Amino acid sequence: MAMAFHFHPLATTRVHLSPIPFAAAAGAPSPSPSSSVAIAAHNHHHHGRRRFNAIVATAAAPSAAATTEFDFKAYMGERAVAVNRALDAAIPAGEPPAALHDAMRYALLAGGKRVRPALCLAACAVVGGPEAWAMPAAAAVEMVHTMSLVHDDLPCMDDDDLRRGKPTCHVVYGEPIAVLAGDALLSLSFHHMASVGSYPPDVDPEKHPARVVRAIGELARCIGSEGLVAGQVVDLEMTGTSEPVPLERLEYIHLHKTAALLEASVVIGAIIGGGTDEQIERLRKYARSIGLLFQVVDDILDVTKSSEELGKTAGKDLASDKTTYLKLLGLDKSREFAEKLLSDAIEQLDCFDKEKAAPLLHLANYIAHRQN
């Protein structure tokens, strides 16, 4: 079933997850020249960043005041350790075919912030479920995310040779093994979520099976032809095109390519945790806002940070004439859009217990403020 998403004021329209609203986009105005983006980024970076931080702090102040004791750095560190342990245990080490398992482990255990698993665990907890119930789902979304990175980096896609500060999977293991490693990670993600042995013994024996089935369906929808894959296809079609790319189509790309997996991470955590339909839908709206926020910030960082700071190739979108928020809106308007998205995400958390919602609040702020 297609889900509607209402645009924020700067977007001035609406988008659906499926089908692509290309017809409505045909008469949109031309984007500004990409050559102006880099200049604007350098000229306005420091002023814009101060303004961005000030507005973000103001938007977050009411919720943050109730969670001043929350140690976000420790929270993320502890969850990353637990998720990495689960991921390490999920993939055989040294078993045949060794090249495949080595490539899977290389890509999956190469580092990363583990934002998606943390969102999954936090969503489970905010609706009252034990985090341990959501750990298999958290590991699964990280497997899917890593698959998407391995495939996205391939020469036939974005053609990148640096990821998480290391050579990409196809550079180390070759393109055929990289493709197959991504395929295997995708398959493993669903196997891991569906396996009874992945879950602790204290899950509700009556409700848990139905929750797992619903969560698997949600993950499959968000990463298939109505989600992540759809966004990648349209992104490829639009890269380097001489046709003006309207904002509506850019929103479609990033709602699917980036936001959909963040949405799945949050929603399946809430499903596994036993959230009500109303709670799940509020968290879905939260996730879509932070999903778009993630991409807007990514576009800003691409032209304001170095490759060493990012751990991946900087300035690549500009060099490949890729349509980004900066290209269509400029740096200042992109920052304003990010501010609005953060404010909208925080608003969706108002109905939850402040202490339980603290991780989701801080994750939203982290996505807005991140430097890589």
From TrEMBL:
GO cellular component terms, A-Z: cytoplasm
Pfam families cross-referenced by the UniProt entry: polyprenyl_synt
Protein name (Swiss-Prot/TrEMBL): Geranylgeranyl diphosphate synthase
Taxonomy of the source species: Eukaryota, Viridiplantae, Streptophyta, Embryophyta, Tracheophyta
A Gene Ontology biological process term: isoprenoid biosynthetic process
Keywords: Isoprene biosynthesis, Magnesium, Metal-binding, Transferase
InterPro entries the record matches: Isoprenoid_synthase_dom_sf (IPR008949), Polyprenyl_synt (IPR000092), Polyprenyl_synt_CS (IPR033749), Prenyl_diphosphate_synthase (IPR053378)
Pathway membership, UniProt: Isoprenoid biosynthesis
